[in-house]
Amino acid sequence: MKEYLTEQAICDLLAWYQKNKRDLPWRRTSDPYRIWLSEIMLQQTRVEAVKPYYARFLDTCPTVKDLADLNEDRLMKLWEGLGYYSRVRNLQKAAQTVMRDFGGEIPHTYEELRRLTGIGEYTAGAIASIAFGERVPAIDGNVLRVLARVMGSREDIADPKTKSAWRGALLPLIPEAAGDFNQALIELGATVCVPNGEAKCKECPMRSYCVSCRENLTDEIPVRSAKKPRRIEKKTVLVIQDGDLTALCKRPDKGLLAGLWELPNREGHLSEGALIDFIRSIGFEPLRVERIEDSKHIFTHIEWHMIAYTVRIAPEFDGWQDGAGMLLVKNEELHASYAIPSAFSAYTKYL
Ligand code: ADE
Q: Which of 69, 132, 262, 268 lies 20 to 30 Å from 205, alpha-carbon distance?
């Protein structure tokens, strides 16, 4: 690595970053809490999508203490639509640890940060370097691509051994301006050294140091081994309504979308007849059933292939409270207070 990331190369990279960095809200602060929040939100999510969530989250939770104390439904509502909800659960758990074990002050070192729930190698490196200037790497997918291309390496960037080896090689090269250096690599990967044959080598401050630029290899590098195909789950989603009340269910506390509210749904694609039998089996009388559009939602390892029905049921039904764990919620309350994951976004217009 040091043959490629020479002192001059690092100097050019830092100068490029100073001149070209995007003006992003989390770059206008040195508050470690705000930097931490941004890094969690930016995992798996685009910068433009994060911006409004980031501002809204900080309006409600301007400090670690506010986050540690926030009620779960409000917390989920703040994250509604961002996905990967375990991120925000872990964030709150870590905030509670910070309050309890660190007197409300976010720990300053990579090693201590690493022990907080939801803070992995990358995030600990990002917070420690950006907020506290510690000279540690922060290698995300963008940085792996940049490093692979600069070195002309055909190592598999999906293999954890690659990341681990490059982390070790990068560590002694990190300059005093560690936060800027890490962000410069991230920024280069996000805006210039982009994937899918679109690399903008002409604009790149590393072009004279980069093997892939020199040898025209940006279409071949990085090499990433194929991911395992996602499991497909068929589902039937039900928009069950009685006047202006809609049925919601709470998902189990563990697993995919843990503890979030959802529209009632069944495994498999049910025929209208089977659906009516199901509705009766949980004690409701269907008045009108209508098939609505199909939709798909892609998670990291699973795809939901959904068909859906609206089901109008006879009102004032006593069986409701307990009907298969469902809750009847007024539509305006539903929009204001219940976080429904984006997996159901094709159907929220019926609510
Ligand atoms: N992605 C991850 N961390 C980031 C940061 N600090 N700035 C921009 N994009 C990022």
A: 132
Task: Report DSSP letters for 289-332, one per residue.
Answer: EEEEEEEEEE-SSEEEEEEEEEEEE-SS-GGGGGGGGEEEEEHH
Relative to the CA of 39, which ligand 1 atom is closest? 3
Instruction: Estimate to the nearest angstrom the gap between the alpha carbon of 64 and the chain centroid.
Output: 20
Using the CB atoms, write b or e for 244-272: b if 16+ within 10 Å. ebbbbbeeeeeebbebbbbbbbeeeebee
Element (H, E) at 211: helix 211-214
**Which of 39, 130, 193, 194 to mutate for ligand 1's pocket (most ligand atoms within 8 Å of CB)?**
39
pLDDT in tens, 7-60: 999 999 999 999 999 999 999 999 999 999 999 999 989 999 999 999 999 999
Concatenating the DSSP letter of every residue in 216-230 gives T-TTT-SB-PPPPPP
- Contacting residues for 204 by C-beta, under 8 A, at least 6 apart: 188, 192, 193, 210, 213
- Spell out which residues line ligand 1, taking CB within 6 angstroms: 24, 39, 42, 47, 126, 183, 186, 190
Q: For residue 64, what are its two tokens?
A: 């670690």
DSSP secondary-structure letter at 45? Answer: S
Q: Please give the model's pTM, rounded to 2 decimal places.
A: 0.89
Q: What is the mean pLDDT of the chain?
A: 94
Can you read off the two tokens belonging to residue 197? Answer: 């044959």
Query: Which residues are part of the catalytic machinery?
Result: 39
**In whole angstroms, what is the distance from residue 146 CA to residue 174 CA?**
15
